[in-house]
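User: Please fill in residues for this 455-position structure.
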């Protein structure tokens, strides 16, 4: 019995000192703590170090009862205090409704246990506003006794008696993002109103700052750091020096009419430019070769006379390269000069295929020969419309071209009477002086660092 007392009292005392010492400062040196602890143990041991038989049993028993009673009272008090501080229920209101909860319940637990009171969570949005996660935003908005509480503070907010909590729908959150540098692609600009179109400036990339979403990878432009250099397509009407000069052109061949047109040109010692279709050249290689042999200029009208702006990038390039292949195979000449069917070649086509052509050649005089208006009407359209540098549109294929053949001798004679010299389109360009030689020669290559516009 006395041994038990000794142990319990000694233990309790020792614990008391240990706690106090610990609580009074962790910085105290271990040697000092040891010195102050030992006397306490010695003091409590001293009375019980005597033989137990030398002490009156009744005195020792009543002291023990008193200590135990005190101990029970302390424990009971601690229990009541513990209940009051840690376990009792409190009353609070949530969205105006009375509720009870255990005191010091974290706000986060109250929300989770009540399924956020049925409110709608916010969404996680990408940097461009696309929904990444329907429930990835702020779970809910909470005011606690009139103050807004941020989501990260839900766990640390402990409920007390009389609290007023309001829970509302969550709010959308944008994904995390950061700024970074990115190349700025050039654009494409095309002048209008000219019959001869060519690239006068190739595009170069600039630099920009973008903001990139870390979940989606999407970017939004922030600012231009260094402007890009746009691709520029010039569009000019030729004004050859020392004229007047003029160029006759024939489209949609070669056909059965081509040899007769070539014969007239040879007879008149004149030249013209022929924009052949690749599909026609494949089936009439002799006609295609005869154009070159006659000293005339062979150019491309693309392969199958499609409206090029309706094609995607690959089909557009295929339409141009397959025609060049066919013309080269038939004649040995691989032209970079094209005339787009219907003249249709926009900024988009230039961006997509400007690197595989040198020039797109339109016309200044449309004879409307395909309407078969009669040889006289075709002739007067040319003679009345002729200016120095004019390019004349006629056809040697695509239909009945007897009126063109009938009109051609008079057109040549009439132009010469007015002082014109008939030349090819390339010669007309060279005489103008503004068209780069590589465009005329059909040897265009991209300067280093060129960036093709994205269209
Ligand atoms: Zn055509």
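Assistant: Residues filled in for all 455 positions:
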């Amino acid at each position: 019995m006395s041994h038990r007392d000794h142990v319990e009292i000694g233990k309790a005392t020792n614990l008391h000192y240990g706690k106090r010492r610990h609580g009074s400062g962790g910085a105290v040196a271990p040697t000092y703590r040891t010195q102050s602890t030992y006397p306490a143990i010695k003091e409590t041991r001293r009375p019980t170090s005597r033989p137990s038989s030398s002490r009156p049993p009744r005195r020792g028993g009543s002291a023990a009862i008193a200590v135990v009673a005190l101990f029970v009272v302390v424990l009971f008090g601690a229990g009541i205090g513990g209940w009051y501080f840690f376990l009792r229920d409190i009353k609070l209101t949530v969205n105006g409704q009375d509720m009870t909860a255990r005191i010091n319940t974290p706000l986060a637990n109250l929300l989770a246990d009540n399924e956020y009171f049925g409110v709608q969570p916010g969404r996680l949005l990408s940097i461009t506003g696309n929904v990444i996660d329907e429930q990835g935003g702020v779970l809910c908005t909470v005011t606690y006794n009139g103050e807004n509480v941020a989501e990260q503070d839900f766990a640390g907010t402990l409920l007390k008696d009389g609290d007023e909590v309001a829970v509302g729908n969550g709010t959308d959150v944008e994904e995390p993002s950061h700024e970074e540098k990115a190349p700025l692609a050039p654009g494409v600009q095309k002048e209008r109103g000219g019959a001869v179109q060519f690239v006068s400036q190739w595009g170069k990339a600039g630099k920009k700052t973008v903001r990139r979403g870390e979940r989606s990878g999407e970017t939004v432009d922030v600012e231009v750091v260094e402007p890009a250099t746009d691709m520029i397509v010039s569009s000019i009407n030729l004004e050859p020096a020392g004229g007047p000069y003029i160029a006759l052109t024939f489209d949609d061949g070669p056909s059965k009419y081509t040899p007769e047109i070539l014969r007239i040109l040879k007879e008149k010692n004149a030249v013209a430019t022929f924009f052949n279709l690749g599909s026609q050249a494949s089936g009439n290689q002799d006609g295609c070769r005869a154009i070159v042999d006659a000293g005339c200029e062979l150019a491309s009208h693309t392969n199958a006379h499609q409206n090029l702006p309706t094609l995607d990038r690959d089909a557009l390039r295929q339409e141009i390269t397959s025609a060049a292949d066919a013309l080269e195979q038939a004649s040995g000449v691989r032209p970079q000069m094209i005339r787009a069917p219907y003249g249709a070649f926009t900024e988009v086509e230039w961006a997509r295929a400007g690197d595989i052509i040198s020039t797109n050649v339109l016309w200044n005089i449309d004879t409307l020969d395909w309407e078969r208006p009669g040889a006289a009407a075709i002739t007067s359209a040319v003679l009345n419309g002729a200016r120095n540098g004019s390019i004349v549109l006629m056809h040697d294929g695509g239909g009945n071209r007897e009126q063109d053949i009938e009109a051609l001798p008079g057109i040549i004679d009439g132009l010469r009477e007015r002082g014109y010299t008939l030349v090819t389109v390339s010669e007309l360009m060279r005489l103008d002086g503004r068209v780069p030689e590589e465009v005329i020669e059909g040897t265009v290559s991209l300067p280093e660092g060129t960036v093709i516009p994205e269209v």
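For context: Residues 1-54 have pLDDT under 50 and may be disordered.
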